[in-house]
């Protein structure tokens, strides 16, 4: 009989042992299923609560760090190539601008040359006695242009103007090693005109491997200067500037009409 009552009591949720069911001491009369105090007394152990959480292992962390390092290296190489390409394009653009300025200045100096009557009405010679030389280029080019040289150094002299108060001055172009230079002499209203000072020449372009001139002679085409003695007067002048080193040179030309 006592056994059946115990089983019935346990089946109905009767709290018989206060040590096992502390809710019975809180005043729960019949069933722990309906007793909030009994439900509050049923708590999970800390070990059971932490068993549902899972972290990263050391191997997973190392793999993630390695992947991040690989992605960082690839990104750095991509950015480095972009920066290098940008710097190369910027350098080429600056060099092209410098070449355009130089060729434009050459063309301007030739177009602003003194008329033939001005040069021949004063003296046909320059102050260095160039008229005494049998320079064939003097016959091909107008009197205001003279291609001359000393000690293997070729230069182009241009009588240009007019400057202030109707004065004229001489402009000299020449290649000094790998540098193209331009020098301007003081203006004067009387011949002979002062000669440009080579030491005062301004460097207008560097990295020049060659600076040459060609004349367009009717019936003969482009002829390198100095031209043959029997060549007629030229109707066009071409400036040829070569930059770069052997095997990687670039050639630029600027043509100016000689009416």
Topology:
Elements: H1 2-11, H2 36-41, H3 46-50, H4 58-111, H5 116-122, H6 137-140, E1 145-150, E2 153-160, E3 169-176, E4 179-184, E5 202-206, E6 208-217, E7 221-224, E8 236-243, E9 250-257
Could you explain the architecture of this structure?
The chain is α+β, with helices and mostly antiparallel strands. It has a domain at 108-257. Helix content is 33%, strand content 24%. The protein contains six helices and nine strands, in the order ααααααβββββββββ. The protein has helices at residues 2-11, 36-41, 46-50, 58-111, 116-122, 137-140; strands spanning 145-150, 153-160, 169-176, 179-184, 202-206, 208-217, 221-224, 236-243, 250-257. The protein has a five-stranded antiparallel beta sheet with strand order 1-2-3-4-5, covered by helices on one side. It has a four-stranded antiparallel beta sheet with strand order 7-6-8-9, with helices on one face. Strand 3 (169-176) and strand 4 form a beta hairpin. The radius of gyration is 48 Å and the shape is elongated. The termini are far apart. Mean pLDDT is 77; it is low at 122-136.
């Amino acid at each position: 009989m006592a056994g059946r009552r115990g089983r019935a009591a346990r089946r109905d949720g009767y709290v018989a042992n206060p040590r096992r069911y502390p809710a019975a001491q809180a005043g729960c009369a019949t069933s722990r299923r309906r007793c909030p105090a009994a439900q509050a007394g049923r708590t999970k152990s800390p070990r059971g609560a932490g068993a549902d959480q899972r972290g990263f292992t050391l191997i997973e962390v190392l793999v993630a760090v390695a992947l991040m390092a690989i992605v960082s290296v690839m990104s750095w190489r991509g950015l480095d190539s972009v920066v290098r390409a940008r710097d190369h394009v910027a350098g080429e653009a600056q060099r092209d601008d410098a070449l355009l300025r130089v060729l434009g200045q050459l063309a301007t100096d030739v177009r602003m040359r003194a008329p033939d009557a001005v040069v021949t009405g004063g003296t046909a010679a320059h102050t260095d006695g160039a008229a005494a030389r049998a320079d064939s280029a003097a016959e091909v080019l107008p009197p205001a242009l003279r291609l001359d040289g000393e000690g293997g150094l070729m230069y182009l002299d241009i009588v240009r103007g007019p400057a202030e108060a109707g004065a004229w001055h001489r402009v000299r172009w020449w290649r000094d090693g790998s540098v193209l230079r331009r020098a301007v002499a003081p203006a004067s209203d009387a011949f002979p005109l002062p000669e440009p000072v080579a030491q005062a020449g301004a460097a207008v372009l560097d990295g020049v491997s060659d600076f040459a001139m060609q004349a367009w002679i009717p019936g003969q085409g482009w002829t390198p200067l100095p031209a043959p003695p029997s060549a007629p007067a030229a109707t066009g002048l071409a400036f040829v500037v070569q930059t770069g080193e052997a095997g990687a040179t670039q050639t630029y030309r600027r043509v100016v009409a000689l009416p």
